């Protein structure tokens, strides 16, 4: 069996049949975003683009940003932080695993009452 991105069924509203989409597409449709590696400019741009798209799609549903990152570039982090502040929906930030350096800064960039850390998350 080839290794790749898993596919899951998803029913588009209005369609009778479900279609198979990659798991990340399905997760994004639920407004869940993940930072699971060192932050670089490409990753920052992708996450910012997804945040902007989701806020255009529905500005009343909150976004959930899960962070497990050793940090990364300051400029990349600041651009993502600015995007989090600019989008209209509230951004919940959740620390899991390691959250250090600019990733810790992004963690506190979430809506003030909507910042969380899992019990065994390590914040530095």
TrEMBL record:
Key word Nucleotide-binding present: no
Gene3D superfamilies: 2-enoyl-CoA Hydratase, Chain A, domain 1 (3.90.226.10)
Entry's transmembrane regions: 93-113
Signal peptide range: none
Database matches in SUPFAM superfamilies: ClpP/crotonase (SSF52096)
A Pfam family matched in the record: CLP_protease
InterPro entries named among the record's database cross-references: ClpP (IPR001907), ClpP/crotonase-like_dom_sf (IPR029045), ClpP/TepA (IPR023562)
GO cellular component: endopeptidase Clp complex; plastid stroma
MF term (GO), any: ATPase binding
CDD domains attached to this UniProt entry: S14_ClpP_2
Keyword list, A-Z: Hydrolase, Membrane, Plastid, Protease, Serine protease, Transmembrane, Transmembrane helix
GO BP, one annotated term: protein quality control for misfolded or incompletely synthesized proteins
Similarity comment: family membership: Belongs to the peptidase S14 family.
Protein name: ATP-dependent Clp protease proteolytic subunit
Lineage: Eukaryota, Viridiplantae, Streptophyta, Embryophyta, Tracheophyta
């Amino acid at each position: 069996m080839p290794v790749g991105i898993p596919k899951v069924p998803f029913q588009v509203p209005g369609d009778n049949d479900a279609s198979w989409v990659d798991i990340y597409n399905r997760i994004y449709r639920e407004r869940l975003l993940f930072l699971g590696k060192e932050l670089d400019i490409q990753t920052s741009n992708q996450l910012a683009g997804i945040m902007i798209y989701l806020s255009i799609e529905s500005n009343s549903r909150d976004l959930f940003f899960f962070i497990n990152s050793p940090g990364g570039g300051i400029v990349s982090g600041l651009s993502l932080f600015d995007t989090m502040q600019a989008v209209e929906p509230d951004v919940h930030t959740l620390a899991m695993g390691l959250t250090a350096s600019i990733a810790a800064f992004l963690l506190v960039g979430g809506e003030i009452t909507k910042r969380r850390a899992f019990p065994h998350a390590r914040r530095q």
